[in-house]
Amino acid sequence: MEFRRTHEAFRERWEKTDDKMCKNSMSFHLHNTLRREFFASYLFMLEQIPLVKLYAVTCEYIMGEKQFYYRAQNFYKNVPASEEGMMGGFMEISEVDLEGSRQFLKKFVGPGKADTKRALDCGCGIGRVSKGVLFPVFESMELLDMMEDFILHAHECYLGDYADLVETYYLDSLQDFTPPLDRYDVIWMQWVACHLTDKDLLEFLRRAKESLRPKGVIIIKDNMARQGCRLDPVDSSLIRHVDIMKSIILQAGLSILDVQKQEGFPDIIVPVWMIAMQ
Ligand SMILES: C[S@@+](CC[C@H](N)C(=O)[O-])C[C@H]1O[C@@H](n2cnc3c(N)ncnc32)[C@H](O)[C@@H]1O
């Protein structure tokens, strides 16, 4: 192959540990170049390795926290606890989004499928998805988010009477959270898988699998790149090609039940896909 030598050289370097890469940490500009040149084209196109390793951008620590997660925390501190905040300003697509989710969920819940006892909303924010999609279906709900303000707003205001159906609020980060065993019929992850590194997402999915009840499903709904993998360094979100996402899911030991694109969003918006797995 024409790029064989470069390929070998990069590959050898890439196999170093997190620590080693940390010591050799380069400037953020170089990280960006790596992201563009290396993640999007090299790994995906040349080597066809869809599971992207993000050493360079995720291993640096700031104030005791991984830079990647620290940036996301900082970003969400300035996001208002409102529907508009949850939608990143794209309020006009919220209802289409919720309707798409309701229809997708129907495929996996009901007689002969997943039960309706309890669901977990991961990265719930103020509870927009819980209120519009999950509460009308499930007997009880559990909600998780890393931002206290969002959870407080959900409980005290946004969810209204639905708040009485919440069994537990988890104020935690998904990468640190171990869901209880055998507990959920549905685990919904909307616009939060993008905030986990590949490794943390894979490990969370492994733990989430163990927390499903019989016939339970995990549903990821997220932005998916048209090509490769793209990092937004402002809010530390990763937009992955749907094949990369599928690869992570399969490596977590889950099987994919269905993959569907959300219809009805304007073209300027990154494509959003729903993936159901168990
Ligand atoms: C774009 S908002 C989406 C909120 C909600 N899922 C929705 O669709 O309306 C992303 C949410 O994920 C939460 N989040 C981001 N990274 C997280 C992490 N590592 N662990 C837990 N929550 C996280 C943010 O605090 C925020 O509430």
Throw out a few tags for this protein.
alpha/beta; SAM-dependent_MTases_sf; 40% helix; globular; N-terminal protein N-methyltransferase activity; 23% strand; 2 domains; binds S-adenosylmethionine; 9-stranded mixed β-sheet; S-adenosyl-L-methionine; Alpha N-terminal protein methyltransferase 1B; methyltransferase; two-stranded antiparallel sheet; Rossmann fold
Give a quick precis of the structure.
The protein has 278 residues and is α/β, with parallel strands linked by helices. It is built from 11 helices and 11 strands. It has 2 domains: 4-72, no CATH class; 89-277, Vaccinia Virus protein VP39 (Rossmann fold).
Average pLDDT: 84
Ions, cofactors, ligands: which are bound? S-adenosylmethionine
Query: What is the chain-wise order of helices and strands?
Result: HHHHEEHHHEHEHEEHEEEHEE
Number of domains: 2
CATH fold description of the largest domain = Rossmann fold
| Count of discrete alpha- or pi-helical segments spanning 4 or more residues | 11
Q: CATH superfamily of the largest domain, please?
A: Vaccinia Virus protein VP39
Reading off the top of the CATH hierarchy, the class of the largest domain is best stated as: Alpha Beta
- Tally of strands: 11
Percent strand: 15-25%
Tell me the CATH architecture of the largest domain: 3-Layer(aba) Sandwich
Major sheet summary line: 9 strands, mixed
The residue ranges in which pLDDT falls below 50 over 5 or more consecutive positions are 16-31, 36-59
Distance between the termini: 39 Å
Protein name: Alpha N-terminal protein methyltransferase 1B
GO molecular function, one term: N-terminal protein N-methyltransferase activity
Keywords: Methyltransferase, S-adenosyl-L-methionine, Transferase
Pfam families: Methyltransf_PK
